[in-house]
Amino acid sequence: MMMMLEAAGIQPLTDFQRSADQDNPRGYFEFERVKKLKDKDTDWLKGTEGKVVKVISALLPYLPADYRYQVFFMRRALPEILASQRKMLVHRGEDPEKISDEEMGQYFERHIAQIEAWLNQQPNISCLYVDYNELLSDPRAQIHQINLFLGGKFDEERMVAAIDPNLYRQRRN
Asked: What confidence tens digit (pLDDT) does each residue in 115-135 have?
């Protein structure tokens, strides 16, 4: 998503602190201060209008209510999320068996339901749910919806060209 939005001409807010690795060979497009939203570190939001910022779902409720947000909420097949998380844990030298896929899946499902309910109650947030799997299987239809959500002014072909199918490694059966 971040690569597509950057290809469309939307500047990503990133500090380049987390470099590319085997899990994300094109990098993470992250801004470390986002992780401090929970601690009410929000001064960095000033001047971010028109930029795109990656925020994990668990931190969305800590966004200050005095800003307006357009949120792309990426949905992905749960087995792929679990496989991806497991592989990342292995690459970081952590025990992937610490919690079972069943337990982690239940946690993710509860978390997503809570965040989606919260998003639907926020008057300052407009949200577009984007299905990751559909985005990769039929990018033009999904990208058209993304572009419409953003006002319809972006080059959809440039966004499509930013998709690298080789990065889609944890596929569901």
From this structure: 999 999 999 999 999 999 899
